[in-house]
Design a protein that fits this description.
The complex is a heterotrimer of chains A (about 280), B (about 180) and C (about 525). Chain A is of the alpha+beta class and about 280 residues long. Chain A has helices at about 1-15, 35-65, 80-110, 150, 245-265, 270-279, and strands at about 120-125, 130-135, 140, 175, 180-185, 190-195, 200-205, 210-215, 220-225, 240-245. In chain C, helix 11 (about 260-275) packs parallel to helix 14 (about 325-340). The chains are: A alpha+beta (about 280), B alpha+beta (about 180), C mainly alpha (about 525).
């Protein structure tokens, strides 16, 4: 199976067209309205670029083949043609406008975090995430749950047993499917990036500032991402795992979390809070 | 001929050095320039003085205001918004509270920094009273409730129906203590 | 300016003997050679770091370096390659070629020229030496974003100092280059008749003078934030880390063009030579270069689509960035039109030029993909970006540097290089380059972030392909070193006009170019 993927990868590397066949070599399956638009935009631009590439380099390689000195080609002596130059300056404008129009629509949609169904505040730390559900009162921390001894030990490499090595957390962020979730992202110490490709979100958290963004998962599932901005030693070890559940399951989860929180309540709650933020 | 070339070269070099210096100043001038832009667009607000409300009230509109609290610089204490979500009519003066419990076991001088999302709402959000206007000193173990008195201006663009206001407390004990 | 008076030659003989001459030399050819050797050494130093990075990334898990050292390697690899390899290489070309191309006897400020070179080795020593200080080198990425760079140790200060010194060197070099070009051209060489390489360097030098002081300002503010209690980038005191990003990229994006415009210039000489046909659209090439330079000042925000700018900001930077595709496209079209109906041969410089045009264009396309804000959101800081900038910087800048080396080596050394080995070097480089960097597009699309020492298992295959390619690519460059040394030590005697289709004043002087050339300005037709 692994070998097959290597071969598939090699073929894909040589034939960009094949790259579109599977998700392994493309943007992962989009699961929100925005990430679906992103996926579509990327496809559109990719095809436009491929078409330009084929045409332009078709001409170049034809010329390299046909106008070789070894074939007896004699050099012409033209060195300008205003009409041609004006045309090939104008055509790119048209192509760019065709790309820019849908892109503008997506930018405006992406930036419109108004009228959300719920708000989650995300705080990044070196090196973990804190999530505060403003509407439901749930608070949780998410840290990497891949065992540390598995990461550091050379004898283990090559036989990593966890399917989701480095992409798993002790507490997943649970959200209801079909609801507009607004995120308020900030950081405690340095800049981090909350990045989940399938949800179409990549937003820096900047200490002292909150930045809002949003997503709306349209399908239940587990979506994985990582910190996208270098934040020190363990930048590679602060994954993000979002679990989208049906609204009923979400409500049940909230209840369960609240029960847990009440159980763990004062004074232990405050101590653990102080512990974790003091780092 | 040669001398005149040397002179011309020196003159040009002087001009180029001036360009380099001007660009250096431009780089530094980006700081106040950036602050102006941020003030105008609301990305950050250095205005730490009380503002005044314009007075009119729009009872037909409801705006949701969310208050969030963050710590920075490894400030290990409890800081929370006591009224995390409030509904207001634009123009109505409203008071919300934040609570700090200084469970760090030492005296802490801290400064709260406000930030808005969406940032475009910031110019329409007027703070009449706020703990972020001044540095705050907390004795070890002290618990204190603090007020924010605010009003959302009625000319808030209609596409904004929800404003988040975040306060991040920064521990400035070392610097503030040093100054006395 | 006092250097201007020192311009009168100390000696009218041939090159003085002994290695000591290099410390005091004011000869543009000596200084050009020193820049190039410096650049080649730094290229191997940076390349070594890249191979350690790729070796670590050969499989998941931590095998060779710990995550701290990994971050330091990625940071210093970038700084060494940008400030130590690519920029000095182009300054080396400028030193050797600009006086020869415009028919000047030397650079305008020969003494200052020496100083600007000798600032480089101490700066490089600071940069590379920072690995040895407690805490290791700076590990915040070459962009030095605060607050992470505020957290770093003394190595960050060393890096800042190195950047200051190299910036000063660049500004001095640029003043020299602009003055030489504007004041010392052969009679009859009007601006619009200058060789393309001279034009691109003129514009590049202005870019350098415009943005290097801005970078100096940004890193100085970083320094005062670190040590003198200022709050430029700290929200607690009314600052903003985002402001550093704005100032840094205001420098950073023109910097990208500083590293590619001279490459455009070199390619614009190689292609006409081996197509035996004049450059198509000379005037539009000049205008395209100038528009790229101007546009470079208003596109910096495309590095910051994920900081949460308002929609208007995102849209502005997206449109401006997309516009750059127009003048860049004009250049590519002009090169292809130059090839059209030429009489083409495929010597090594030409192979590198064709490789440049094809592969740089792939980098241009991925640049267009990244310019579109929503797509950038999903690709920002992933390996797609890594692939993109290596396509423009390796198969762009470095291909042109190597092609240019093969092109002008006969003029510099008086010998033809080994054509067979040169071609082998090209094919090894081009193939292994693609093996290394093409799969990184897929890694990025699949969501693998950059600057991580360890990764999830689904990224393994492409990383392995990439690492194998990287080692092939790295070791292929030893062949380049061998070809250069072999060429210096001997070979077929090169004629004054080493290439059949070559045009320009540099081909009117003997090969190797004598120690002093054009002491009386040549006639230019």
């Amino acid at each position: 199976m692994k070998k097959l993927r290597v071969i598939a990868g090699a073929i894909a590397a040589s034939l960009p067209a094949l790259a579109l066949a599977g998700y392994d070599v493309n943007i992962p399956a989009p699961k929100t309205p925005i990430s679906m638009q992103i996926y579509g935009l990327h496809m559109e631009i990719l095809w436009v670029c491929l078409a330009i590439f084929v045409v332009v380099f078709g001409v170049m390689f034809y010329s390299l083949f046909a106008h070789r000195k070894s074939k007896g080609a004699v050099a012409a002596n033209f060195h300008e043609n205003h009409l041609v130059e004006v045309i090939w300056t104008l055509i790119p404008f048209v192509i760019l406008a065709v790309i820019a129009f849908p892109a503008t629509r997506t930018v405006l949609a992406m930036k419109d975090a108004s009228n959300p169904d719920m708000t989650i505040k995300v705080t990044a730390y070196q090196w973990k995430w804190q999530y505060d559900y403003l509407n439901d009162g749930v608070k949780l921390y998410a840290t990497l749950s891949t065992p540390r001894d598995q990461i550091g030990s050379p004898e283990e490499h090559g036989k990593i047993t966890n399917e989701h090595y480095l992409l798993e957390t002790d507490n997943n962020v649970v959200v209801p499917v079909g609801k507009k979730i607004r995120l308020l992202i900030t950081a405690n110490d340095v800049i981090h990036g909350w990045y989940v490709p399938q949800l179409g979100v990549n937003q820096y958290g900047i200490p002292g500032f909150i930045k809002d963004t949003w997503f709306q998962a349209n399908e239940a599932g587990i979506y994985r991402g990582q910190c996208s901005q270098i934040c020190g030693k363990e930048h590679g070890y602060m994954p993000i795992v979002v679990e989208a559940k049906s609204p009923e399951d979400y409500a049940a989860w909230v209840k369960e979390q609240k029960a847990k929180q009440a159980e763990a309540a004062q004074p232990a709650d405050k101590v653990s809070m102080a512990d974790t933020t003091a780092r | 001929m040669n001398a005149s070339l040397a002179d011309r070269n020196a003159l040009l070099a002087r001009k180029l050095i001036i360009i380099a210096c001007v660009m250096g100043c431009f780089g530094l001038a980006l700081v106040p320039f950036y602050r102006q832009i941020c003030e105008a667009t609301g990305i950050s607000q250095s205005r730490v003085v009380a503002q005044t409300a314009s007075g009119s009230i729009d009872p037909t509109r409801d705006v949701t205001v969310e208050f969030v609290a963050s710590n920075s610089n490894g400030l290990g204490w409890t800081f929370e918004a006591l009224n995390p979500i409030v509904q207001v009519h634009p123009g109505v003066v409203t008071t919300v509270r934040y609570r700090v419990v200084n469970n760090t076991g030492r005296k802490v001088i801290a400064q709260a920094v406000p930030s808005y999302a969406p940032s475009l709402a910031a110019p329409y959000f007027k703070k009449l009273k706020c703990f972020c206007f001044d540095q705050q000193t907390f004795a070890p173990g002290e618990a204190r409730d603090m007020q924010v008195v605010f009003v959302v201006e009625p000319d808030l663009p209609t596409d904004i129906s929800r404003i988040s206001l975040s306060y991040t407390f920064f521990d400035i004990t070392a610097e503030a203590g040093g100054k006395g | 300016m006092e250097a201007a008076h020192a311009h009168a030659h100390d000696d009218h003989h041939h090159a003085p003997a002994g290695i000591g001459r290099y410390f005091t030399t004011t000869n543009h050819k000596d200084i050009g050679s020193m820049y190039m050797w410096f650049s080649l050494i730094m290229f191997f130093v940076g390349g070594f770091m890249a191979l350690v990075i790729r070796a670590e990334l050969f499989q998941p898990g931590i095998q060779i370096v710990n995550p701290d050292v990994f971050n330091q390697l990625t940071t210093i690899h970038a700084l060494v390659m940008i400030f130590g390899a690519v920029m000095p290489a182009f300054v080396g070309y400028a030193n050797w070629q600009i006086p020869l191309m415009v028919g000047a006897s030397d650079m305008a400020f020969a003494r200052m020229n020496n100083w600007s070179f000798w600032l480089m080795p101490p700066a490089a020593a600071l940069l590379v030496g920072s690995f040895l200080v407690p805490g290791g080198a700076a590990g915040s990425g070459w962009t030095l974003y605060p607050p992470l760079s505020i957290q770093g140790g003394i190595s960050v200060d060393m890096t800042i100092l190195a950047v200051h010194i190299m910036g000063a060197s660049s500004i001095m070099g640029s003043i020299n280059i602009i003055t030489t070009i504007l004041n010392m051209r052969a009679p009859g060489m009007t601006l619009m008749r200058m060789p393309m390489f001279v034009w691109t360097w003129l514009i590049t030098a202005y870019l350098l003078i415009a943005v290097m002081p801005v970078l100096a300002g940004a890193v100085t503010m970083l320094l005062t934030d670190r040590h003198f209690g200022t709050h430029f980038f700290n929200a607690a005191g009314g600052g903003d880390p985002t402001m550093f990003m704005h100032i840094f990229w205001f420098f950073g994006h023109p910097e990208v063009y500083i590293m590619i415009l001279p490459a455009f210039g070199i390619i614009s000489h190689i292609i006409p030579t081996f197509a035996r046909k004049p450059l198509f659209g000379y005037a539009s090439m000049v205008y395209a270069t100038a528009s790229i330079a101007l546009l470079s000042f208003i596109v910096w925000g495309h590095h910051m689509f994920t900081v949460g700018m308002p929609a208007a900001g995102n849209l502005f930077f997206m449109y401006a960035t997309m516009l750059i595709a127009v003048p860049t496209g004009v250049k590519v079209f002009n090169w292809i039109a130059t090839l059209w109906k030429g009489s083409i041969t495929f010597e090594t410089p030409m192979l590198f030029a064709i490789g440049f045009v094809s592969l740089f264009t792939i980098g241009g396309f991925s640049g267009l993909v990244l310019a579109v804000t929503p797509v950038d959101i999903t690709l920002h800081n992933t390996y797609y970006v890594v692939a993109h900038f290596h396509y423009v910087l390796f198969s762009g800048a470095i291909f042109s540097i190597m092609g240019g080396a093969y092109y002008w080596l006969p003029k510099w050394t008086g010998h033809m290089y080994d054509e067979t080995l040169g071609k082998v070097h090209f094919w090894l480089t081009a193939i292994s380059f693609n093996i290394t960097f093409f799969p990184q597009h897929f890694l990025g699309l699949a969501g693998m972030p950059r600057r991580i020492p360890d990764y999830a298992p689904q990224f393994t295959e492409f990383n392995q392909i990439s690492s194998i390619g990287a080692f092939l690519l790295g070791f292929s460059q030893l062949l380049f070193l061998y070809v250069v040394i072999k060429c210096i030590r001997g070979g077929v005697k090169a004629e004054a006009k080493a290439w059949e289709g070559a045009e320009g004043l540099e081909w009117t002087v003997p090969s190797p170019a004598p120690y002093h050339t054009f002491e009386t300005p040549p006639a230019f037709h």
